[in-house]
C-alpha cells in the first residue's frame, strides 16, 4: 500500500502548508545566479584592467623614446635601434 504523500493525490503539498518551499527555492536560485554573475563581472574587470595596464606601459615606453628624440637627447640611429627593440619586445609578448 502506498502512503498518501505519493502520486497525484498527495496530501503533503496539496494542503498548502509548504508554499514557503517555492519561495525558498526561488531565493536560492537568485542568490546562486547573483553570485555567478558577480564573479564573472569581477573576473572580466580584473582581466581587462590588466590588459589595459600592459598596453599603457608599452605605449608609455614608446612615448618616452619619442620625447627624448624630440628633445635631442638621442640621435636618429639610437632612436631607430631602440624603437625596433621596443617593437620586437611588444611582438614577442
Kindly describe this structure.
- The chain is an all-alpha fold and 93 residues long.
- The protein has one domain (11-92).
- Helix content is 80%, strand content 0%.
- It contains three helices and no strands.
- It has helices at 11-14, 19-71, 76-92.
- Helix 2 runs antiparallel to helix 3.
- The N and C termini lie far apart (72 Å).
First-to-last CA distance: 72 Å
Low-confidence runs (pLDDT<50, min 5 residues)?
Answer: none
Mean pLDDT: 81
Structural class: mainly alpha
Major pleated sheet: none
Q: Which series of helices and strands comes N to C?
A: HHH
Q: How much is the radius of gyration in Å?
A: 32 Å
Indicate the topology.
Blueprint: H1 11-14, H2 19-71, H3 76-92
Helix pairs in contact: 2-3
A few lines on this structure:
This protein has helices at residues 11-14, 19-71, 76-92.
Any key phrases for this structure?
mainly alpha, 93 residues, single chain, 3 helices, 0% strand
Amino acid at each position: 500500500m502506498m502512503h498518501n504523500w505519493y502520486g497525484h493525490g498527495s496530501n503533503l503539498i496539496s494542503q498548502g502548508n509548504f508554499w514557503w518551499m517555492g519561495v525558498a527555492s526561488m531565493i536560492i536560485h537568485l542568490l546562486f545566479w547573483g553570485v555567478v554573475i558577480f564573479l564573472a563581472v569581477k573576473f572580466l574587470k580584473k582581466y581587462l584592467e590588466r590588459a589595459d595596464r600592459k598596453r599603457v606601459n608599452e605605449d608609455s615606453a614608446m612615448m618616452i623614446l619619442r620625447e627624448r628624440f624630440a628633445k635631442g637627447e638621442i640621435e636618429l640611429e639610437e632612436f631607430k635601434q631602440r624603437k625596433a627593440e621596443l617593437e620586437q619586445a611588444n611582438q614577442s609578448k
